[in-house]
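Issue: copy button drops trailing tokens. Both records pasted manually instead:
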Amino acid sequence: MIIAVTAWRHWTDAAFIRASLVDLCIKYGVPQGVSLHIRVGDAPGGDEAVRHWCRINSPRITHWVFNADWQTHGSHRGSPAGPIRNHNMLMGIGDPVQGPTELLLAFPGRRRPVRVPGSGSWGCCIEAALMGIRVEIPAYRNSGE
């Protein structure tokens, strides 16, 4: 199974993300031998928590990090660097593990009005849905950490 994970750069509850990833593994049969490959961004916060969880669970779970090219596209508000990264992640462009993204697991933050393209994780959710990729957003419950 190939999934993409998008998360708010200011997400602080890494324990909730870890628990959601474990729940996903159980739901889709990873402990019973289903292989899992995760496509994730290079941002801090939630993406960082996902990358850390993947490293801990390697080699059982593989992952590929997609980088936003802020130098080429600019780091100003409205820059296309993030949306381009999200598109590449959803399409698997540059990922040595070939195949379509089957699911987007999302941990979006609280935002002002959503802009498309853009708006970080929310924009990624919208693009995935438009591409026909199933989107799951776990109901947040404070992990207590």
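Record 2 (pasted manually too):
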Amino acid sequence: MKRGIHELVMVGALAALAGCSSARPSTPPISPTSVQMRDYTDARKKVVETLKASRITAKVQLCASGSGETTFTFKGKGKGHVRGKVVAKGEWSFSSIGGQTLWTFSETFKIKGKADGTITGSGTDNIATCKTFGPVTNNKDLAYHLGKLSGFATTNVMKNGARLLQQMH
């Protein structure tokens, strides 16, 4: 939903609630301009954990007309809530059906001796091919779990030999 729609819904809800009570409010009614709307993208600003690697090893397992599957591994560093050496493996796949691309992503990682985590997701954007995945920069496609922490994840373009930057928000 766009921000303007959120504000319209909030104004409508406030107007509906104002007419529901016959009692006098103890405080003046809230005006629509005084309501602070939190933009969905604000959640991206708080980074809990960052995984970095200088090189991803990606291997195409299957690449047919309109579909593919690739596995990947990397070693790197975790920085943030949990610091240390990271090892990870995972896969992405995609299928084009009726002009729309459906993709899935799955990754498991270990911050050695400290924590295990996952990043998973699926979507309909055109961000997966046989040789590349991403970038995923908004907080709707990938979710992470790291110990008791969970939330959304973003990643740069992942491809064989590329640098990696994944952030958990």
